[in-house]
# Entry
Amino acid sequence: MPAPGWKPRLVALDVDGTLLDPDPQTISAPVRAAVRRVAAAGAHVVIATGRSMLGTLPVLDELGLTSGVALCSNGAVTLDAATGDALAVETFDPAPVHARLTALLPGASYAAEQIGTGSLVTSPFREYQLHGPQRLADLDELFAAPVPRLIANWEGHEPQEVTAALAGVDLPGCTVTIDHYEPWVTLVPAGVTKGSALEKLRTELGVAAEDTFAAGDGTNDVQMLRWAAHGVAMGQAPAEVRTAAAEVTGPVAEDGVVPALARWFP
# Structure
């Protein structure tokens, strides 16, 4: 545990499964209030999510975060919270990745993020899975240009099956995370994680490494939790995520992030 009197200056928060309960897809009033107390105290609150820009903007609005930045698409996109514009975007070539995944996840659907406008998809995703407009596209169009994020959705399978199918597989040019709620894979540029994006931001803000806090619940949060001076895993998080954290709080259904923040921001 941190020393007495310590208070984080940079607070990084995952969205789905941390701030937002996936069922029923809401951020509770106590969670909203807790995040607002952190911001009011002068700490840098950074939403760090696998969501696209379009999926992150409503979260910023709901939390009342109108300054600073948010890290979207697992760190591939940096969003200006004040203007809603992309400040930085990292991309990769999705075509070689798709060529490998076709054999590993037969029948999977794909979604290529289009910055600020939606997604190109090979077949429709459910509304809560992708935020913003979806446009059907053939593979030539889908993989014609570099993208910040590619989703592979293996509908009809369990996340554990996805993990087994990709075990030991090296996919070219990208960082891979597997969701523990849905049977899908998120791919972003090689070397890009929430942790790497936060480290770059921490340096730019001049925040000491020992003054960082993060909370998350998914495998895409592991690097972020290891990066933070004090990382908190949500109660429903898989074992891999719990191991990466310094502390495990209650599950998202019980607003576990609230007491994790209230210790320093009552």
Notes: The longest strand covers residues 109-114. Residues 44 and 205 are 9 Å apart (CA to CA). Residues 29-40 form the longest helix (12 residues). The radius of gyration is 18 Å.
